Amino acid sequence: MMTENQDTIVFFWIGEEIETPRYLVKSIRLTMGDGIKIVQLTNHKTKDVEGVSSIQRYNLSKQIMVARLEAYSNYIPETENTYFCDADSIFINKVSLPNSSYKIYLCPREINFNISHTFPEFYEEFVGKTAMDVMPYLFGMIATKGNQQSFFKSLYNICLKLPERFHRWYGDQYSLKSLIDNDFHQFEKLRLDKYLVILKEPLTIKYLEKIHKEGSIFITFKGPNSKVFLKNALLLYEFYYKKIN
Fold first, then answer.
1. Whose CB among 44, 72, 87, 138 lies 3.0–4.6 Å from 107's, allowing a Cys bridge?
2. Residue 27 to residues 7, 51, 89, 206, 239: CA-CA distances in angstroms?
């Protein structure tokens, strides 16, 4: 039964290494305590992540993009508000959604760049295109109100029909653009500076203090050193949290 007085944070993770989602869960518990549900979506081999409220296991595709959309589409929301987020991230403020009648909340890309059509493999769809041309919405944070399984099922079905290279890379964001362009228009935009702060370098105490005071909720780390940055960011946030509480 769906409850209205509690939010849920959902993350997808598969693989032997589970330190990354552990950092995420630790940050959630530190920031919001036990008053929020945390759900791990995974396959039947990945270990449990300590601190989650529940684990949903599925028989998933071996292709990572398909597997994530498959897991999202199989999950039945338990609370009125659900936040689907990347695991290589931390929360630094309590979650909240705009006071709106919309049911889907997406983060639009703000920084544009010419996207490579040869990395990590050849993508003819990207030739001469920018990131905003082909993937204008980010997948690191998607929020929903009520049960929006049909939204994720539509993304999953679109991804399945794409060339197999999209099943390995980019399939989630590319499917999201296709769905919005062709069929789905009712969504609210979320501010990146609040809901999806993206970092490709180490978090500093000065920057953490700044964005925390400004009400930023969620930081996600990208790039080859993201796991190191994430670990150090959690340690820094734990120090900062004790300082202000």
1. 138
2. 16, 10, 9, 18, 12
Total length of the chain: 245
- Paired residues of 130 in beta bridges: 114
Contacts of 82 (CB under 8 A, 6+ apart): 7, 8, 9, 10, 143, 144, 145, 148
Q: Is the pTM of this model over 0.90?
A: yes
What are the tokens at 76? Answer: 């039945």
| 226 vs 107: CA distance, rounded Å | 20
Domains and CATH numbers, the chain: 3-192 (3.90.550.10)
Q: Rounded CA gap, 138 and 146, in Å? A: 21
Structure-token pair, residue 54: 């529940």
* Mean pLDDT of all residues belonging to the chain: 95
Q: pLDDT tens for residues 56-97?
A: 999 999 999 999 999 999 999 999 999 999 999 999 999 999
Q: Cis omega (within 30 of 0) on the bond before 120?
A: yes
What single DSSP character describes residue 47?
P
